[in-house]
UniProtKB/TrEMBL annotation:
Keyword Endoplasmic reticulum: no
Residue stretches making up the CSC1/OSCA1-like cytosolic domain: 201-362
Keyword entries, A-Z: Calcium, Ion channel, Ion transport, Membrane, Transmembrane, Transmembrane helix, Transport
Disordered as annotated region, ranges: 720-773
Organism: Salvia divinorum (Maria pastora)
Annotated GO CC locations: membrane
Comp. bias intervals (Acidic residues): 720-729
Domain CSC1/OSCA1-like 7TM region: 373-645
Membrane-topology annotation of the record: Multi-pass membrane protein
Listed transmembrane segments: 6-28, 101-120, 159-178, 375-399, 419-447, 468-486, 574-604, 630-647, 653-671
Subcellular location as annotated: Membrane
Name of the protein: Calcium permeable stress-gated cation channel 1
Domain CSC1/OSCA1-like N-terminal transmembrane, residue spans: 9-179
């Protein structure tokens, strides 16, 4: 069981790694060669250029200005300097509101931490229950547990202090949540009223269009809306099943990347590269790599042309769904928020996601199969959660040194070395749990795609919800139960059944030490690693060396990423859960999550300003989920406190805590009724105001031409680009034939690329690269 010394060593190691990552980032970001890795957002906006060449060849790669290294920490004030309104214009409302979750954590937990340390820590510390064996002589504990509620004697009147603090913490949390909900709702309405015109403001997604033998889907949609929305209907775009075409286009793009790689390899070595035609190039017939890739591109080009022709002409590719656009926002709001026919299962309407948020693959899924898919996904998630109990239980076994020594005595000489013991107890459990959770978000996104959701934002929100449930069950509950079982196994075996509940009540608060180690690994070192961007750094330079030929290729190689909401938000919610649960019972936990919220706010603000390029904009529609999950955590902390008090001989406190639970639930229902409608419905008053203002400013706006092609499938939007790409491919093939002929004559061909590799790299950075805009 971790002691103060173990926690101190773990904190020292994690601080060391975090500082190392931050310093490495601060230095690497100054180098011209890395400019596109650490400032891709500004390149995509077109307001930042490659650092100009100055001086010698070395300055293309290394910043030789010693003054910039003195100010290498300027990225921190730069990240905090941009006002919130400017941040919304720069990165969108989603990004700005996401940052407010970190600020909300600070608003809630800073006062709670001060009160806990001022009142609860002295109340807990000034007892000797654990030292005197108050619960059981066999109970395992450490000196750090003396700061928890476990050190308060059985049936002591001091528990009144914890009850009063529970009320104080609940009222403060609810007050902060209410203010934040009102603020975000106001920001959303203002954003919707003031933002520029977008197609999704005028467009509705219509599903389950009834079949008609006399009309096609397109004709049926047009006829229905001309009859039922004669004054507001503008145009429509039927949904086409182009999934196979999209896969072929993606395969061709991948093949072109391989062709670029082999071409650059040939230019450097002047020898024909070879590859195998089997799986991943590891088996099969050995052939000329360039000729093979050219043949594959030719084959895919023909297949794409045939598939594109089939999709446009085959009625089976037309799905019973359409994007219907209206002349006004008011008309779209009425259609999206009302029932269209007497049969509630036909002509289903909902707001269309913005074009870049649409998940096109799932538009081809028949509506009738969605219920079955949802059932299958729910069962799959249940078994995923159930089977993940095994690795989480294994992690808890690592956190108990005493148990390991009893069951594996041969490890005792190694484990008893003080430093190794501290590392095993203070660092290893958190790292092991972090490793087991790495693949989970990817699995949850795959499951969500099978469910048939129609937008990327919906996929991420449902994945975030399941990740939260998973964290609650496995990371919290199973960790507490399994950890308590491992640590107190001897006590369970030696005590009577009547004493087991008392031992559990004492032992559960002690599990805070495990979560402290997890917060340090995930919340300190993990966040510092996020700004370091080691993986994007390596991938960018590999792509820049082997694949980049044009500026567009270089933009794609930057890979700015985005806020992975399905990963980041559940992690935040776990910290809210742990903070609210342990605020009353183990206050020593709170400073560790405060460090996380401060560090994460600064890091992610920098990333949002300089790095991330959001995939979509939902106008903060995720906030009701954030609010609800914090409420769930608060209610669970109160229920856990009820159970804990019953094991401490104070069942008379139960009515007071039940009243607290009821008040919290009432508060949640109040906020849900008062503020949530702003996130799920668009007020007709706001729509009419925006339409009236737009007509006054742009009376001659041609809305039909603006909306006509907004929701065409991306493979058809990029059709012209594909044709241009085919022309480029022909030129490449011609140049390769010439180069091959010269190579066979042993005459080196002049390289069309500078230095025989990739185009010239960035040359130098400005004196203050961190603040260049």
């Amino acid at each position: 069981m971790a002691t103060f010394g173990d926690i101190g060593i773990a904190a020292g190691l994690n601080i060391l790694f975090a500082v190392a990552f931050l310093i490495a980032f601060a230095i690497l970001r100054l180098q011209p060669i890395n400019d596109r890795v650490y400032f891709p957002k500004w390149y995509l906006l077109g307001v930042r250029n490659c650092p100009s060449q100055q001086g010698s060849f070395v300055t293309k790669f290394v910043n030789l200005d010693w003054r910039s290294y003195i100010r290498f920490l300027n990225w921190v004030p730069d990240a905090l300097r941009m006002p919130e309104l400017q941040l919304i214009d720069h990165a969108g409302l989603d990004s700005a509101v996401y940052l407010r979750i970190y600020l909300l954590g600070l608003k809630i937990f800073v006062p709670i931490a001060l009160l806990s340390w001022a009142i609860l820590v002295p109340v807990n510390w000034t007892n000797n229950t654990l030292a005197n064996g108050g619960a059981s002589e066999k109970l395992q504990y450490s000196n750090i547990d003396k700061l928890s509620i476990s050190n308060v004697p059985y049936g002591s009147p001091r528990f009144w202090t914890h009850i009063v603090m529970a009320y104080a913490f609940t009222f403060w949390t609810c007050f902060s949540l209410r203010n934040e909900y009102a603020k975000v709702a106001e920001m959303r309405l203002h954003f919707l009223a003031s933002k520029k015109r977008r197609p999704d403001q005028f467009t509705v997604l219509v599903r389950n269009v009834p079949p008609d033998q006399d009309e096609s889907v397109s004709e049926a949609v047009e006829h229905f809306f001309l009859v039922n929305h004669p004054d507001h209907y503008q145009t429509h775009q039927v949904v086409i099943n182009a999934n196979k075409l999209a896969k072929l286009v993606q395969e061709k793009k991948s093949t072109k990347n391989w062709l670029d790689y082999y071409q650059l390899k040939f230019e450097r070595k002047q020898s024909r590269p070879m590859t195998k035609t089997g799986f991943l190039g590891l088996c099969g017939e050995k052939v000329d790599a360039i000729d093979h890739q050219i043949a594959e591109i030719d084959r895919l080009t023909k297949e794409i042309a045939e598939e594109r022709k089939r999709v446009k002409s085959d009625p089976k590719c037309i799905m019973p769904a359409a994007f219907v656009s209206f002349k006004t926002r008011w008309g779209a709001a009425v259609c999206a928020q009302t029932q269209q026919s007497r049969n509630p299962t036909l002509w289903l309407t909902d707001w269309a996601s913005e074009p870049r948020d649409v998940y096109w693959d799932n538009l081809a899924i028949p509506y009738v199969s969605l219920t079955i898919r949802k059932l299958i996904v729910t069962v799959a998630f249940f078994f995923l959660t159930f089977f993940f109990v095994i690795p989480v239980t294994f992690v808890q076994s690592l956190a108990n040194i005493e148990g390991i020594e009893k069951r594996a005595p041969f490890l005792e000489p190694i484990i008893e070395v003080p430093f190794i013991k501290s590392v095993v107890q203070g660092v290893l459990p958190g790292i092991a749990l972090k490793i087991f959770l790495l693949v989970l978000p990817t699995i949850l996104i795959m499951i969500a795609k099978l469910e048939g959701l129609l937008s990327i934002s919906a996929l991420e929100r449902i994945s975030a919800f399941r990740y939260y449930i998973f964290n609650f069950i496995n990371v919290f509950l199973v960790s507490v139960i399994a950890g308590t079982a491992f640590e107190q196994l001897d006590s369970f075996l030696r005590q009577s059944a009547n004493d087991i509940t008392r031992i559990i009540g004492v032992a559960i608060p002690m599990k805070a030490t495990f979560f402290i180690t997890y917060v340090m690994v995930d919340g300190w070192t993990g966040v510092a690693g996020e700004i370091f961007r080691l993986t994007p750094l390596i991938l960018y330079h590999l792509k820049n060396s082997f694949l980049v030929k044009t500026e567009k290729d270089r933009e794609e190689a930057m890979d700015p990423g985005s806020i992975e909401f399905h990963m980041a938000e559940p992690r935040l919610q776990l910290y809210f859960l742990l903070g609210l649960v342990y605020a009353v019972v183990t206050p020593i936990f709170l400073p560790f999550i405060l460090v996380f919220f401060v560090l994460a706010y600064v890091v992610f603000r920098h990333q949002i300003i300089n790095v991330y390029n959001q995939k979509y904009e939902s106008a903060a529609s995720f906030w009701p989920d954030v609010h609800a999950r914090i409420i769930y955590s608060l209610v669970f902390s109160q229920i856990m406190l009820i159970g804990l008090m019953s094991t401490k001989g104070n069942s008379q406190f139960t009515p007071f805590l039940i009243a607290l639970v009821v008040l919290t639930i009432w508060f949640h229902l109040f906020c849900k009724g008062r503020y949530e409608p702003a996130f799920v419905r668009y007020p007709l008053q706001e729509a009419m105001m925006k339409d009236t203002l737009e007509r006054a400013i742009e009376p001659n706006l041609d809305m039909k031409s603006y909306l006509q092609n907004a929701y065409i499938h991306p493979v058809f939007k990029n059709e012209d680009e594909e044709k241009d790409g085919e022309d480029v491919d022909e030129k490449i093939q011609e140049s390769l034939l010439v180069a091959t002929t010269r190579s066979r004559r042993n005459t080196p061909a002049p390289s069309k690329y500078s230095g025989g590799s990739s185009p010239s790299l960035p040359e130098s950075v400005s004196e203050n690269a961190g603040s260049q805009r």
